[in-house]
Amino acid sequence: MRIGELSRRTGVNTHQLRYYEAQGLLEADRGANGYREYGEHAVLRVRQIRHLLGAGLSSEDIAYLLPCAVGEIPELLGCPDLLAAMRSRLRRLDEQLTKLARSRDALAVYIDAAERLGGETYPPFDGAEPEPAVPA
């Protein structure tokens, strides 16, 4: 099937399908005329990709998961490469969370110190841009 038919059958626009192909998530053969030709399995693959994207996974993560995905709402088999990649991803996320927690704690200390040193003499910050000074 051509890309337009795959788009119609999956509800995913052709631009996104080309992106999935560029990311290595979807494969297409090229016909003699140069058009993309997808097999019947592409419908299932696109649905799997959409479900995994909906779960908040990146295309990089999905590339690791797809070889072990089974079914439209994919169940993931315990492929050794998949498990190693996902454990590595989990470690990176844990490291990012630790760094964010440290940054948050440091910011809270600065806010506390600023409030103790006279922060109340200024109007509270509400996130709005300050109004420009009006000449008298």
UniProtKB/TrEMBL annotation:
<protein>
    <submittedName>
        <fullName>MerR family transcriptional regulator</fullName>
    </submittedName>
</protein>
<dbReference type="InterPro" id="IPR047057">
    <property type="entry name" value="MerR_fam"/>
</dbReference>
<feature type="domain" description="HTH merR-type">
    <location>
        <begin position="1"/>
        <end position="68"/>
    </location>
</feature>
<dbReference type="GO" id="GO:0003700">
    <property type="term" value="F:DNA-binding transcription factor activity"/>
</dbReference>
<dbReference type="InterPro" id="IPR009061">
    <property type="entry name" value="DNA-bd_dom_put_sf"/>
</dbReference>
<keyword id="KW-0804">Transcription</keyword>
<keyword id="KW-0238">DNA-binding</keyword>
<keyword id="KW-0678">Repressor</keyword>
<dbReference type="InterPro" id="IPR000551">
    <property type="entry name" value="MerR-type_HTH_dom"/>
</dbReference>
<dbReference type="Pfam" id="PF13411">
    <property type="entry name" value="MerR_1"/>
</dbReference>
<dbReference type="GO" id="GO:0003677">
    <property type="term" value="F:DNA binding"/>
</dbReference>
<keyword id="KW-0805">Transcription regulation</keyword>
